[in-house]
Every structure is written in structure tokens, then in C-alpha cells.
Design brief:
The chain contains eleven helices and 14 strands. It is globular and about 60 Å long.
């Protein structure tokens, strides 16, 4: 951040898990931003937001945020998926830069339209794919760059949880047309990570099921991708999983890598920890992955997780005016649109 640059005046719309655990703490910890407005209609969340961020103005709705657009620079959308397209469109037209949480939109055509609009208006538009900065993902990426696995042929990635009840009202009501279901939720992360590691792909097999009472979309999904690079990705997401498999398994011509456990940044932030803490993003050594071949396995410590990188990169882009191609977006929205295209392919197969 240049010494003369004023803070990026930021509003966060939605103060559920996304707004309260991810966006607000990361924004507040970065001096390049000021957290000026938080939108939530829930009385309990209003009280929590006001106590945690006393300098922020608390409003009821995203529409109220847009009424304040003249005094803002950036809107972060942590609202339900069906609202992403209309709210992002309105924010861009109001002269704001925009961060959209995943899924970027419900339909890939909507995502492309937002990209075209942002380019035409000269606004910064990006998608919040924070799990590109999971410590285990950073470890896998470094491992691939080292070449120690040889030619990788199989990539397995899972997000599995035991959540037998649908607890959020909007999720209980949401169908796939509303962006409901685990494929739009956790699957968006898995697809994005697979594309980031191995490049363009097509869906060659998909299984979607609803196991939990009251589930109107899907909560048990398997998707197989065939990448142009030759790698096959097997991606599993399940919210009714009593015994969880490895988070990652990679198989190559010279060895393999298996990693259990889930990145610790989300629970650390949810428990009230700060991204500025020395312990932030550091995984216990007991969760280190196994590298090599059966009988010849070594522990590979997990890299430190780094969600704050998203907003560091974004600040540089916004302060630059969003015009320099030398400064990347933290996440290219075209990547998010490609994820949506794969979700559409998967649904066509079942």
C-alpha cells in the first residue's frame, strides 16, 4: 500500500459464516482497508457485528449498502448464491469494486455477463476462492512444482463432514436453481483447486444425491474430471459422512502423497482468533501428510495457511486502479465461471 493511499472503504453484505468468519476479520486485519459498513437483518448478528467492529455502520440490507455507494470503494458479497448476480451487477453499476463469495453466480452465463460489465465499467471484480490459500493446498502445489511425484496421473480431493441436519433456513429452502446443494458449496472449492493444479478439464462422470431429510438439492456428490494435461481428478463432497477419507491423495509415476485433516484457518477464525496471531494458519504436526511409497513413507509438514493473501493481492490491484495487467487479481472471475461450467456439465450427466 502506497503511503499516500487512503484505506479502501469497504462494505460487507451478509454476516453469517462468510461475512463474520472470513471477510470481516481478514479486512479488519489489513490496514489497506477500512471496514465501514456491515449489512445484516438478523438482530443477533447485528449485535455481534457492532461489538466486534464498533467503527462500522450496521445496516439492514444490501440495498441499504448501495444507497451509501458514494462513500464506499468496495462491496464484499457474503449473501446467499441466488443474490450474487443481481447484487454484484447493481454494485458495479453504482461504481464499486466487488468481491463475490463462492459460488460466483448460479449460472455461468450470469458470471460472464458480470465479467463483461466490470470490464466495460473499468471496475475490479473477483471471486473469493479462499481455499487456494489453504495450507494443505499450498503444500500440494509446492509438491507438484518440485516434481518429486513424477508424472501425476490421479488426483483425489474430498470435503466430507458429518452434518445430518440442514440448519440454515436459506439452505433448507434452496434448490439447485437457487445455488443450493453441496456441489455449489464445497464442490466449488474442489473444482477450483483441481483446475488450478492441473488445468482445463471436462466432467466425465457425476453422481448427485440428496440423503438428508429436507435436503432439496444435493448433499452427497462425486465428480470425475479428465484434464487436458492427462490427469484424472476424483472429487468427493458429502455432508452425511460418518467416517472421512483423506483430504488429498495424489498418485504419480515416482510416488504418492496422502493428507488427512482440514486446514485450520476457518475454525481458528470462528473461535475468535486473529489472522495477525503467530499461531494463525499453523497446522499441528500430527496432521502432516505422507509422501513416498508404501514401506518408504516420510512425513511432509503442512505449509502455513494464508487466507490474508487474498486481500493483500486485492488491495494492490485496487490501489493501482485495477488497470495494470502486471498486477493480478487474487482470483480471475474467468476461473469461477469455468467452475460453474463444470457444475452445469455434471448436472447434465445425471
Amino acid at each position: 500500500m502506497a503511503p499516500s493511499s487512503p484505506p479502501i472503504r469497504t462494505a460487507v453484505a451478509g454476516f453469517g459464516l462468510s461475512g463474520s468468519v472470513f471477510h470481516a476479520p481478514l479486512i479488519a486485519a489489513n490496514p489497506a482497508f477500512s471496514l465501514d459498513v456491515i449489512a445484516t437483518s438478523d438482530a443477533g448478528r447485528k449485535a455481534t457485528a457492532a461489538a466486534a467492529y464498533p467503527a462500522a455502520r450496521i445496516v439492514d440490507t444490501p440495498a441499504a449498502v448501495l444507497e451509501l455507494a458514494g462513500g464506499l470503494d468496495l462491496l464484499v458479497l457474503g449473501t446467499p448464491p441466488a443474490t450474487h448476480y443481481p447484487l454484484a451487477k447493481a454494485a458495479l453499476e453504482a461504481g464499486l469494486d466487488v468481491v463475490v463469495d463462492k459460488p460466483f453466480t448460479v449460472r455461468s452465463a450470469e458470471g460472464r455477463e458480470l465479467m463483461d460489465l466490470a470490464a466495460r465499467l473499468g471496475r475490479v471484480l473477483t471471486a473469493f476462492q479462499n481455499r487456494r490459500w489453504d495450507g494443505d493446498f499450498l503444500t500440494v502445489r509446492a509438491l507438484l512444482e518440485s516434481g518429486v511425484l513424477g508424472t501425476v496421473t490421479r488426483f483425489e480431493s474430498r470435503f466430507e463432514r458429518w452434518a445430518p441436519k440442514v440448519t440454515k433456513a436459506w439452505k433448507a429452502a434452496a434448490t439447485p436453481d437457487d445455488g443450493g446443494g453441496v456441489l455449489f458449496d464445497l464442490g466449488t472449492h474442489l473444482l477450483d483447486q483441481a483446475l488450478a493444479l492441473f488445468g482445463p478439464a471436462a466432467v466425465i462422470h457425476a453422481e448427485l444425491a440428496a440423503r438428508r431429510p429436507g435436503e432439496r438439492a444435493d448433499d452427497d456428490v462425486f465428480v470425475a474430471l479428465r484434464h487436458d494435461s492427462g490427469v484424472t481428478s476424483h472429487l468427493s463432497m458429502n455432508l452425511l459422512c460418518a467416517q472421512q477419507g483423506p483430504r488429498y491423495r495424489l498418485l504419480g509415476s515416482d510416488g504418492g502423497f496422502t493428507k488427512h485433516g482440514v486446514d485450520p484457518q476457518e475454525p481458528y477464525l470462528a473461535a475468535g482468533g486473529s489472522p495477525l496471531d503467530a499461531a494463525y494458519g499453523v497446522e499441528d504436526r500430527e496432521w502432516a501428510g505422507l509422501l513416498g511409497r508404501d514401506g518408504h513413507l516420510d512425513r511432509l509438514p503442512t505449509e502455513r495457511g494464508a487466507y490474508p493473501e487474498f486481500y493483500r493481492i486485492l488491495a494492490e490491484k485496487i490501489i493501482d486502479g485495477g488497470t495494470s495487467s502486471a498486477l493480478p487479481l487474487p482470483v480471475d472471475p474467468a476461473d469461477a465461471v469455468e467452475v460453474l461450467r463444470l457444475i452445469e456439465q455434471a448436472r447434465e450427466l445425471v
